[in-house]
Specification:
The complex is a heterodimer. By secondary structure, chain A is mainly alpha-helical. Chain A has 12 helices and no strands. Mean pLDDT of chain A is 78; it is low at 1-35 and 308-314. Chain B is globular. Classes of the chains: A mainly alpha, B mainly alpha. Chains A and B meet through helix 1, helix 3, helix 4, helix 5 and helix 6 of A and helix 1, helix 3, helix 4, helix 5 and helix 7 of B.
């Protein structure tokens, strides 16, 4: 990097020198008590650099999705091989085909049903446990936390085989109940973990005040803490929804009939070994991505607070 | 598994006195934790025990209980002890079946998490400045997380394919055009690229939250003491991010280690060299005929053991480094 002619503050972490060399720094005695350099006002060069880096990163983040949207406008099966030709024949034919002639809405309904059921059950089950672990030092609470964390580590492969065998015995293969049960096994501990983090950010004085006013522990939880934790509950629910929404392994193994597919499985069914209908696939993908992204942006601010607890004590 | 006793109330005798006291003091805590414990016991504990038992048998889809038409065929698999584990770890061709995938899984996890963390931290630092259009950048940068993985992976498949845009661009720059989805090493590289693209936003948002929680006074103080930007980063930013970092890195490692969807959707049933242990185990259990349930479950148990051992070491290491720093 060349040193700039105008003495700008080197705020970029790219200058790997420890501090500035004495030559560049006027000794403090000789300096007028000027405005101290504000950390959050980067110099002009640094700003340009930041903008460049962020623009490139944004472009990389956006491109695959934009490209898919562009390809979905080419009406023929082989258009994705010659993207240049799409410009001259842009049409929404793929979209009308997907909406009218495939089971798109069935899959959407299935996915929504499974995702919502999983989140509701997950959050309800998890809320009390999260609160207990967050507030009460009962014997075994450390073990319980550890247990919740360990269930996050279960690889697909551990439970898949036994669950398949058990569900087959129960005659539940190819039913929504099977997937909801399976997803709950990850969602419940995950939500509990997340909600514990959220409860930790609610000051303990509130509980104490409740207890002083004569509420039972349940009363405190129900009347004081739950209303306060509403955003946390929403986030945990949403997170579970997302996970269930995008799960592939169990969904493609436990659902056999194409009227029972979730969107993830349905989407892959367009691109099988014998027939690659990339154009329909792309259109369906765009149709899925738009609503999900919109909802995601509405709640993304709160998404991380639960996971990395204690970061946002307002 | 230790199950917090919820149903067995004061009726229980045993180490009675102590238990009774603790029960009277904490009964509501147990009551609140009970639903989760019960759910986990039924949904996770029971299948896990079943799975452990399966690994000790030679179960596959040919000898398990199944129904063909109206005939119900009873299971005929038998108990074979630890044979499956021995076979996986040091049987013939164990290197091709287990160790090579294990090695690749470790490389994959380390590479992905390191990339996730470094890129995520860099972007978080950039977004943490007072810039015009910050919100706009953030919205764009979160996209890979907002759009479901199963959608974006297909997009990457088109882009990395034979006549995909990636190779067109490389070709127009007169660079070599690798067969991303066919050659083993490029398959692995492609998997890492796609997973990095998918995983950075989560790290970025988490670390941004962490950065915003570091109080500005610390920076002011550091500046007063004459610390340059690099020193401020080393001595204020990184320690301030420690708790967030340790959480997201652990989560990242667990998720990447178990990352199923990306590899499964990117390569389907091909690419034996790019399969990490999870997808490999899935293939044994469900992607072939006859389905080898026992081996697949054994792989699963091995995977889980690796993760549990790793996590306990990780936590111990964290505790020790925290002691050293306080």
């Amino acid at each position: 990097m060349t040193t700039p002619t105008t003495p700008s503050t080197p705020t970029t972490p790219m200058t790997l020198t420890t501090g500035t060399s004495p030559a560049e720094q006027t000794p403090p005695a000789a300096r007028r008590p000027a405005r101290p350099v504000r950390r959050d006002r980067p110099g002009r060069r640094a700003t340009v650099l930041s903008h460049t880096a962020l623009s490139i990163a944004s472009l990389i983040a956006l491109f695959p999705i934009a490209w898919l949207a562009f390809l979905s406008l080419g009406p023929d099966k082989s258009d994705y091989l010659h993207p240049g030709r799409i410009w001259s024949k842009i049409s929404f034919a793929n979209y009308s085909f997907v909406l009218e002639h495939t089971r798109f809405f069935t899959w959407l309904g299935n996915t929504a049903l499974i995702a919502v059921a999983t989140s509701v059950i997950g959050v309800f089950m998890a809320a009390t446990a999260g609160y207990a672990v967050s507030r009460m030092r009962f014997p075994g609470h450390k073990k319980l936390m550890w247990l919740l964390l360990v269930t996050q580590m279960f690889p697909v492969a551990v439970l898949m085989v036994p669950m398949y065998v058990i569900l087959a015995d129960l005659g539940l293969i190819d039913t929504f109940g099977a997937l909801i049960l399976v997803y709950c096994s990850t969602a419940v501990p995950y939500c509990a973990w997340m909600l514990k983090g959220y409860f930790d950010t609610i000051p303990y004085e509130i509980d104490e005040a409740g207890r002083v006013d004569g509420l039972s522990p349940f009363g405190t939880f129900w009347r004081l803490i739950l209303p306060l934790a509403r955003p946390g509950l929403a986030v945990a629910g949403f997170y579970t929804c997302l996970t269930a929404w995008g799960e592939v392994a169990f969904a493609s193994t436990f659902m056999l009939d194409d009227s029972k597919y979730t969107l993830a499985v349905g989407l892959s069914s367009f691109v099988s070994e014998h027939d690659a209908q990339w154009n329909y696939m792309a259109a369906t993908a765009v149709l899925i991505a738009i609503p999900v992204s919109v909802i995601f942006y509405l709640v993304q601010k709160h998404l991380v607070t639960g996971l990395t607890a204690g970061g946002t004590k307002g | 598994m230790t199950v917090a006793v919820a149903g067995a109330g004061p009726k229980r005798r045993g180490p009675a006195q102590r238990f009774k006291q603790s029960w009277q003091k904490h009964w509501y805590a147990y009551a609140m934790a009970a639903p989760v414990v019960v759910v986990l016991g039924v949904l996770v504990g029971y299948p896990l025990v079943q799975g452990l038992y399966l690994t000790l048998t030679d179960a596959n889809s040919l000898n398990s209980a199944r129904t063909i038409g109206v005939n119900h065929i009873a299971a005929t698999y038998k108990f074979i002890g630890l044979h499956n584990y021995a076979d996986i770890l040091w049987g013939p061709t164990a290197w091709d079946r287990f160790w090579s995938h294990f090695l690749w899984t470790v490389v994959w996890t380390a590479a992905c998490v390191a990339l996730h963390y470094c890129i995520g931290l860099g972007l978080a630092l950039l977004l943490n400045q007072k810039l015009r259009g910050r919100t706009f950048y953030r919205m764009l940068l979160i996209l890979p997380w907002a759009v479901p993985t199963f959608v974006t992976v297909f997009s990457w498949r088109i882009m990395l394919g034979d006549s995909g845009i990636v190779n067109s661009v490389l070709g127009s720059l007169h660079l070599p055009q690798p067969a991303w989805l066919e050659e083993p090493h490029f398959q692995q590289l492609a998997a890492i690229i796609v997973n990095t693209w998918c995983g950075v936003p989560f790290m970025m948002v988490s670390l941004l939250g962490g950065l915003q929680s570091i109080s500005a006074d610390l920076y002011e103080a550091a500046e007063m003491d004459g610390a340059g930007p690099w020193q401020r980063f080393l001595n204020v930013t990184l320690p301030g991010l420690r708790s967030v970092s340790s959480t997201v890195v652990l989560l990242g490692i667990i998720w990447t280690f178990n990352q199923f969807a990306i590899i499964f959707l990117l390569f389907g049933n091909g690419a034996p060299d790019a399969q990490i242990l999870v997808t490999w185990a899935y293939r044994l259990g469900f992607g072939q005929q006859p389905r080898d349930y026992a081996q697949s479950a054994a792989y699963g148990v091995l995977l889980l053991s690796i993760l549990i051992v790793f996590t306990s070491f990780y936590r111990r290491w964290l505790a020790r480094s925290e002691k050293a720093n306080s």
